[in-house]
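Two proteins follow. First one:
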Amino acid sequence: MIPADRYHTPYMSGDALRGEIDSGVVFYGYFDGDDLLGVMGIQDVKDVTLIRHAYVMPKHQGKGIGSRLLKHLLALTDRQVLIGTWADASWAVSFYEKHGFRKVTHEEKERLLRKYWKIPERQVEMSVVLTR
């Protein structure tokens, strides 16, 4: 559900991945043997923790991989946790709500995205923020 004007392949280039790591995103993966089935990042920004770049391979979704990754990352912090995702990604919003997160108001979303994320204005328009 990434808007067409924001979607590109690959989703994140090697240089962009290095930039995310350099900015403090720590990635965790879920493996089955040598196969990477899911990934999720965590980043402390100012006084909060952001969950970033959460993906599970489509054929492995619905098997608890995302839940295990999220649970692991939540155990790493005692700060307020914020998650940004695409507003039209209803399955992602439902996933986070199932884990105790709630969407913030539109006004709060605008403030939080501009304070804690470095994303284009178009992405701010198309996103939601959840917290717990």
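Second one, unrelated to the first:
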Amino acid sequence: MKGAQTLQSIEREVIGCTKCPELRTYCLQVAAEKKRAYRDWTYWGKPVPAFGDRNARLVLVGLAPGAHGSNRTGRMFTGDASGDFLYPALHRAGFASQAASLHRDDGMELHDCIITAALRCAPPQNKPSPEELRRCFPYLVREFAVLSNMRVVVGLGSIGTKAAIAALKANGFEVERAAFAHGALARARQGARTVTLIASFHPSRQNTNTGKLTRAMFDAIFTRARELL
């Protein structure tokens, strides 16, 4: 399929990206030093490509890979607490083949869903700079362009949501104004085509451990997405 090949070419470019030398240095340093718990791992250490169904109608946009999560495993939201909260929710909603995402060869498959991010390299303290986000943004724009079946976008956190809105606009969509709030909906229109954006709190440990984001709140996001599809 032409669309699938185009998405594959974007993934190859992402993996080989060197637009942010400071992030490449940081990710490689983390990969070399490792975390004690993962000393036997060979870290991925490269920019992390999108993961999921190339014909997906549901697109998730996160923040960035975790230093010892996706930067270690090479798969979006895999290997850290955020993924441990996200993938079970996707499984309960029928978008993931299994509840646990452990590594790139664990058999996980996403159905009608693909996960990408505003930034593809792990940033120090998990805080990307505006310039780093700007350099990475074209990849998201191009992914949105080739995901022709996209009907619902879930923004995970304020940065992921802002990036998703900007990518929709860059692809010619008119997006309703909406303040960031968990569960907030906004419609994006391009001629006869409509994409619904759903904002969600990010499934970070900070949000889930404090109760800012609960299992029921997160499940409601994907239940709504399923209803819209």
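SUMMARY FIELD: Strands lie at 51-52, 58-62, 113-117, 152-156, 174-175, 185-190, 193-200. The chain has a mean pLDDT of 96.
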